[in-house]
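WARN  no MSA supplied for this record, continuing single-sequence
INFO  ligand: zinc ion
INFO  echoing inputs
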Amino acid sequence: MRFTNLTRATEIGANSYLLETGGRKLVLDCGMHPKREGEEALPNLRLVPDGALDAILVSHSHLDHIGSLPVLMRRQPQSRVFMTPATASLGEALLHNSINVMAKQAAPANGNGHGHHERGRGASNASLLFTHREADEYTQVWQPCHQRQLWSLEGERIVRPEEAAVSFEFFDAGHILGSSGILLRAEGRRFFYTGDVNFVDQTISRAASFPAPEDGPIDVLVIETTRGDHPAPKGVTREDEQARLARAMKEVFAREGAVLIPVFALGKTQEMLATFLQFKQQGLLGDVPIYIGGLSTKMTEIYDRFAGSSPRRLPGLSLLHSVAPYVLSGRAASEEPIKPRRIYALSSGMMTEHTLSNVFARRMLSDRRHAIFFVGYADPVSPAGVLRAAKPGDMVRLDDEAPEQELRCQVDVFDFSAHAQRETILDYIRKVQPKKVVLVHGDPGAVEWFQATLKELEPAMEVIVPPAGVALEL
Ligand SMILES: [Zn+2]
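INFO  complex generated
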């Protein structure tokens, strides 16, 4: 079994991994780096010879896992592509959106179309890496596979793993709609890739439901380490954080302010809409209007479409019907007056330049009545990271082309992460007791914490940090 990390560095970038086993070659995930441009935004796909792949398996539809799939498919036209039905629906919509963003960046003379998108101009991809026509053609080929079904890499439903040289099975990862860990069986061994995972319930997503240890040992575990660089805050539950957020919003509305919540269009938007609905049902929030962006609306439609057929809490809930958010256009975000007692849940989550949340935040920043509440991960060098690190009265700049502004509005951070805390990841690794654990999807500090901690607690376990582009025999 040979494993090659196609991600270009030890980082949360363009996630992609090549696995050679049972006489087959397959790639797990094919993401796009959120901050790099052109070729540098892609995984190191040159390490996979053209036409050599048997299969591509996608864990979930966030762009850092699916964003450059069309580029890989162009080089591997014979390869089968597998993902859950929900990942296929979300992924198709996101890829088309990402093409529009690339097209606008490649033709700045046509204006930048202020901020409908997850990837703003600051995260530019100066060239069009693939086209709408290619995306249409390639998504036709995707083969949707439900979770907890056994498949061969040839795309056949099978009953026993022995029927195929390499078999696979998706397990719910609890991260976003459709997200899955992938169990591969080959050469009499079991290999499990978690993708992005959450081991506790969110408001919509249920905690991950991974293979049980009774079903057999995992020989190789490839696991994400996003939150490895900081401990979980002690004794703080999701319920505590929800209560704190509801209280904080009430205070803002009492002083005639509005609340901006920067969110990712996919996943966090829908979790927060469901949370606001619960606040309203519990009488914590009155009849406060909620605004989201166009891409978030598209993603929410797909969540609603799968509300009856995906493993989740609040089954059957239609967010667009029950929460009935208003859709905020790019023009409205930059021009219309900011109304008091409103929630603006706008993407992007990291407030990338020229996205709705960045444009909107700059209009709120110097007004004491308003508040910006963060509910998820932000890269420290992103505009959201800069704002989170600032103190009241500091001069901050959220866009290189805009003037500095004095920070006067309220800024606070709430923990609603869709990623597992490092303690729960560590518990899972120790419960599974894989012979080899491969640490991915984390910055160096995060990976190092796991490496050091496992060395101390599980000295017999082989812990591997896969260097970029090096084939490892596992
Ligand atoms: Zn993700």
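Residues 60, 62, 175, 196 surround zinc ion (CB under 6 Å).
INFO  checksum written, moving to next record
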